[in-house]
Amino acid sequence: MANIKSAEKRILQDARRQKRNKSARAHLRTAVKKYGQAEGKAKGEALPATYSKIDRARQKGVIHKNAAARYKSRLAKKAAK
User: Fold this and answer.
1) How many domains is the chain partitioned into structurally?
2) What pTM did the predictor assign?
3) What's the rounded Cα separation, in Å, for the pair 21 and 67?
């Protein structure tokens, strides 16, 4: 553990952020996985919701903007098939 008060605070803040980011990333991956498993009409309805989750993760800084674009591009490719 750190000796300096500000370093202790930084460690606690990082732990909180890491927990929040991990949760958000898990939700994102679950949404992408659910989209991949959806069938027929449900698949068409799930695409905007999945895009929304990707954009939300991007806004919160959980994923990089290029990673968000890559996720969306791959989903669009699957949707076009």
Assistant:
1) 1
2) 0.79
3) 15
